């Protein structure tokens, strides 16, 4: 099974979020819904939004990294000109969000969100800092592995897929119920980025490659 189930008891939030009844088929025209939903105009996405380290007056703290890859369809063809968004914790493992109050420092030079459009080959590229692990209250002594959230849009908000990118060799993998909620071990590995020496920039930033293949990369269903 590639995608995590709606209900995964070890991941406690799914006990409240997972649907308890069969889905209902909407009678409205799906195309009409998509056409009337809000959309991003491509002109609104600026090049600088893909550099999460250059959004403030100073440099953020932490290990600078380059994350790049391709968005592909189920047949391996590039998904062109599609909106890719990322969001993440800072290098200390804290989000710039009012609901995150655990005692790790905020970084005034890091908001932790960016976006870009894929090119004609389905490629994207972000510059950021490596996020830190952080505690969460799912169970006793629970910690999330370092990760970056990815959102891939279609032509409207109704066409949106969300997943997470992890880093190789993280010791928290066996203890994370979100990562482990994916039953298939091979599918879990598709969420782990690969170190990419070609994308690494000398004396500046390490590179990681993370390809998203629609239908094969596990997505967040719960």
Chain-wise SSE layout:
Elements: H1 14-17, H2 30-36, E1 64-72, E2 83-88, E3 113-117, E4 123-129, E5 134-135, E6 143-144, E7 147-153, E8 160-166, H3 177-180, H4 185-189, E9 194-195, E10 206-209, E11 212-213
Parallel strand pairs: 1-10, 1-11
Antiparallel strand pairs: 1-4, 2-3, 2-7, 5-6, 7-8, 9-10
Family: Belongs to the intradiol ring-cleavage dioxygenase family.
Organism: Planotetraspora kaengkrachanensis
InterPro entries: Intradiol_dOase_C, Intradiol_dOase_core, Intradiol_RC_Dioxygenase, PCDO_beta_N, Protocat_dOase_b
Structural class: mainly beta
Tally of contiguous helical segments: 4
User: How helix-rich are the residues, as a percent range?
Assistant: under 10%
Mean pLDDT: 88
Question: How many strands?
Answer: 11
| Major β-sheet annotation | 5 strands, mixed
Our Rg estimate from Cα atoms comes to 18 Å
The sequence of SSEs as H and E is: HHEEEEEEEEHHEEE
Could you characterize what this model shows?
Keywords: Dioxygenase, Oxidoreductase. With 222 residues, the chain is mainly beta. It has four helices and eleven strands; from the N terminus they run H-H-E-E-E-E-E-E-E-E-H-H-E-E-E. Helices cover 9% and strands 24% of the residues. A hairpin with a 6-residue loop joins strand 7 (147-153) and strand 8. The longest helix has 7 residues, at 30-36. The mean pLDDT is 88.
